[in-house]
């Protein structure tokens, strides 16, 4: 033990006159330690002021004698003998202090010392602006400029970044606070996150005449939660979904992409009823045209703000249908507006679902692939079939049926090229 902290005070400190006026008063106390058989005064304290409730103060005494030793607190002010003077003192506690350089691993430690005369017995509230963790980001990535140089070799470097893709990578692979003890780096598709991260870093209008990254993540995790819930929050910020493809945890993002395959009546399983494509539609109550997006406003003390996003044309057509959403890690009003707009457009435009069965060629797909459906019944004409033969010398194709080309306009035929990718060429 190196020092002692004494906590003491008064139950009340006020003197009432015969006219009923309440005046300040004072009381004197001595903190003493027995050294070499005699009592030595270490602190001479005088509490001055006026209070009708309990008031506590504290002092620290160092240079302590060898243990054991005695301590005491003496009241030098005479005790009150009248109800007009209230100055009863109390000794609340003492605290033993050991001056050892403690280690606080993985902890941001802040020490604050305040004057009790400014705050009294009130608890001092403190708020801190946290920048966040140092993450592992791609070695060819500059987090300040959000630029990717050259071809990534798959290695990482430590840096600060609020790109949600690399925040998610850190959460999945970190062995202390994340899922690193259960899910190794080899079990996460970093190449998919690399493409997602590039999409999130693209500059878009912020709605106020400037530009900003499409998606950033400024969030803090303060409580222990289920891994799937935290994973879902990060994925919701990036508009993607996690998928286990049998080997790794990969991610599928809702972003513009090219079609990877075309399906028609000739390459799907034909059911007995002769209708291979079965359609269903979303309910009108699930097609929201207004959304209240909750986000964190850094310009308002980091309080929660609400951004209202509406589709006026849809409201005029269907009536107002409002929903609410929380934008995880969102500290930008522009990003909150884009999140609400994405939700509205998704529900208003993606209203149709088609079910069909395929053979072995369907094994080439992964969740998130964009495909094209050529349904004769839906279009009202024959728009799909197979190629029976190809003559490279005459540049002709033999189809599995006769077709009639339109007399005017441009006719396109969709084929699969040598790389297995669908292409459209003019006939």
From TrEMBL:
Domain of life per record: Bacteria
Record domain Tip attachment protein J: where: 223-390
Protein name stated in the entry: Host specificity protein J
Database matches in InterPro entries: GpJ_HDII-ins2, J_dom, Viral_Tip_Attach_Protein
Domain Tip attachment protein J HDII-ins2: 2-99
Organism encoding this protein: Shigella flexneri
């Amino acid at each position: 033990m190196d020092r002692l902290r004494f906590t003491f005070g008064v139950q009340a400190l006020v003197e009432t006159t015969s006219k009923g006026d309440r005046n300040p008063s004072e009381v004197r106390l001595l903190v003493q330690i027995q050294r070499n058989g005699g009592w030595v005064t270490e602190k001479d304290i005088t509490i001055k002021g006026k209070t009708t409730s309990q008031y506590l103060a504290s002092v620290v005494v160092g240079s302590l004698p060898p243990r054991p030793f005695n301590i005491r607190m003496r009241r030098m002010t005479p005790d009150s003998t009248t109800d007009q003077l209230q100055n009863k003192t109390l000794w609340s506690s003492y605290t033993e202090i050991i001056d050892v350089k403690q280690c606080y691993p993985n902890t941001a430690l802040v020490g604050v010392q305040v004057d009790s005369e400014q705050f009294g017995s009130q608890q001092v509230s403190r708020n801190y602006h946290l920048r966040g963790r140092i993450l592992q980001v791609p070695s060819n990535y500059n987090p300040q400029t959000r630029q990717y140089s050259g071809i990534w070799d798959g290695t990482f470097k430590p840096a600060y970044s609020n790109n949600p893709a690399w925040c998610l990578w850190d959460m999945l692979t970190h062995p202390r606070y994340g899922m690193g003890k259960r899910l190794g780096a080899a079990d996460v598709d970093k190449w998919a996150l690399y493409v997602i991260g590039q999409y999130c870093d693209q500059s878009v209008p912020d709605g106020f005449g400037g530009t900003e990254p499409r998606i950033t993540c400024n969030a803090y995790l303060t409580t222990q939660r289920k891994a799937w819930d935290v994973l879902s929050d990060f994925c919701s910020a990036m508009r993607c979904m996690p998928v286990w493809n049998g080997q790794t945890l990969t991610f599928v993002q809702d972003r513009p992409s090219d079609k990877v395959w075309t399906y028609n009546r000739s390459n799907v399983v034909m059911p007995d009823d002769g209708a291979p494509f079965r359609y269903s539609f979303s309910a009108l109550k699930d097609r929201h045209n207004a959304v209240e997006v909750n986000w964190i406003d850094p310009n308002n003390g980091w309080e929660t703000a609400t951004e209202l996003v509406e589709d006026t044309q849809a409201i005029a057509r269907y009536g107002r249908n409002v929903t609410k959403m929380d934008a995880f890690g969102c500290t930008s009003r522009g990003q909150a507006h884009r999140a609400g707009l994405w939700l509205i457009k998704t529900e208003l435009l993606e209203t149709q679902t088609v079910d069909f069965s395929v053979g072995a060629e369907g094994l080439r797909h992964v969740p998130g692939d964009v495909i094209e459906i050529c349904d004769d019944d839906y279009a009202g004409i024959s728009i799909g079939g197979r190629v029976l033969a190809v003559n490279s010398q005459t540049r002709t194709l033999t189809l599995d049926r006769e077709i009639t080309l339109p007399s005017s306009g441009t006719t396109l035929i969709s084929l699969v090229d040598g790389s297995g990718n669908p292409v459209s060429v003019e006939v």
